[in-house]
Amino acid sequence: MALRPYVVGNWKMNGTRAMLAEARAIDRSAQRLMKVEVALAPPYTLIHAVHREAEQIGVGAQDCHPSADGAFTGDISAAMVADAGAKFVILGHSERREGHGETDALVRAKAEAALAAGLKLIVCCGESEQVRDEGRAERFVTAQLEASLPDEIDAADERLSVAYEPIWAIGTGRTPTVADIGAMHRAIRDLLVSRYGQDQGSAVRILYGGSVKPENARELLAADEVGGALVGGASLTAESFLGIVVAAVDLQDA
Ligand SMILES: O=C[C@H](O)COP(=O)(O)O
C-alpha cells in the first residue's frame, strides 16, 4: 500500500458526551501508531467535542446536506460540519441510501458540496445480498459508485476515499472472502483510474467495511487493493477499535 492505511470509526447514531473518554483513549494511542491514519465520525452532536479532544486523529461527519444553507429544518451543511471541526464526511452510506432514500445523484451533489466546503470525502458503495446472489455485485457496485462520485478530485491532498461495504456484511458478523473483497476492490480501482486517470485514480484509498473486528482485521486489510477499514460497531470502544488499528500497523510492519 503506497499510502498510509486509513482506519475510520463510524459511530452511527451512538454516543453522548460520556463516550468522549473513548475518543480520548483512541487519540492518545493513535499518537504511538503513526503508520496508520486514524479517524472517527461521531454523530453531529459530538463533532466539536471530539475535535477538541483530538490531537492525532481526524474527525469527520456521517453526512451533510447538498445545499450551502437555507430553509432545511433539521439538516446540516458541509460548511457547518467543517466549522464544528470536521475534516471529512462519509457520504452515501447504505443506511442513508436505504433509510433516507438517498439516490446516487444526491450523493454526488453532497460530494460536490463537501468538496466546495474544503472537506475530504469517504464515498460508500455496496451491494445487497440479493444482488450478490444474482452474480451482479461488481456491475452494481461500480455503476453505483460511478454515479455517486464527484466530477473532479485533487489526488495530491487525498481528498477522496471510497468505502466498499456489502450491505449484508454490515453489523452481521459475516464478511466476504478475501478473494471476493480483492476482486471488488480491483474493479473499483479500475473504475477510479478510468474516471480520474492513472495518477489520481491510483491514489484513492479504497476502504473495506462490514463486520471488521480486531480478530479479522489483519486478514481483511491484507486483501488486494484494501487501503483501510470503515468500522461501525467495533469502533465504539477504544479497546476494540485500537485492536483494528494495531492490526493495520502490524501489517505495515510485516
Ligand atoms: O460504516 C461502517 C459500516 O457500516 C460497518 O459497520 P459494522 O462494522 O458494524 O459492520
From TrEMBL:
<keyword id="KW-0413">Isomerase</keyword>
<dbReference type="InterPro" id="IPR000652">
    <property type="entry name" value="Triosephosphate_isomerase"/>
</dbReference>
<comment type="similarity">
    <text>Belongs to the triosephosphate isomerase family.</text>
</comment>
<dbReference type="InterPro" id="IPR035990">
    <property type="entry name" value="TIM_sf"/>
</dbReference>
<comment type="pathway">
    <text>Carbohydrate biosynthesis; gluconeogenesis.</text>
</comment>
<dbReference type="InterPro" id="IPR022896">
    <property type="entry name" value="TrioseP_Isoase_bac/euk"/>
</dbReference>
<keyword id="KW-0963">Cytoplasm</keyword>
<keyword id="KW-0324">Glycolysis</keyword>
<feature type="binding site">
    <location>
        <position position="171"/>
    </location>
    <ligand>
        <name>substrate</name>
    </ligand>
</feature>
<dbReference type="GO" id="GO:0016853">
    <property type="term" value="F:isomerase activity"/>
</dbReference>
<feature type="binding site">
    <location>
        <begin position="10"/>
        <end position="12"/>
    </location>
    <ligand>
        <name>substrate</name>
    </ligand>
</feature>
<feature type="active site" description="Electrophile">
    <location>
        <position position="93"/>
    </location>
</feature>
<feature type="binding site">
    <location>
        <begin position="232"/>
        <end position="233"/>
    </location>
    <ligand>
        <name>substrate</name>
    </ligand>
</feature>
<comment type="pathway">
    <text>Carbohydrate degradation; glycolysis; D-glyceraldehyde 3-phosphate from glycerone phosphate: step 1/1.</text>
</comment>
<keyword id="KW-0312">Gluconeogenesis</keyword>
<dbReference type="InterPro" id="IPR013785">
    <property type="entry name" value="Aldolase_TIM"/>
</dbReference>
<comment type="subunit">
    <text>Homodimer.</text>
</comment>
<feature type="binding site">
    <location>
        <position position="211"/>
    </location>
    <ligand>
        <name>substrate</name>
    </ligand>
</feature>
<comment type="function">
    <text>Involved in the gluconeogenesis. Catalyzes stereospecifically the conversion of dihydroxyacetone phosphate (DHAP) to D-glyceraldehyde-3-phosphate (G3P).</text>
</comment>
<feature type="active site" description="Proton acceptor">
    <location>
        <position position="165"/>
    </location>
</feature>
<dbReference type="Pfam" id="PF00121">
    <property type="entry name" value="TIM"/>
</dbReference>
<dbReference type="InterPro" id="IPR020861">
    <property type="entry name" value="Triosephosphate_isomerase_AS"/>
</dbReference>
<protein>
    <recommendedName>
        <fullName>Triosephosphate isomerase</fullName>
        <ecNumber>5.3.1.1</ecNumber>
    </recommendedName>
</protein>
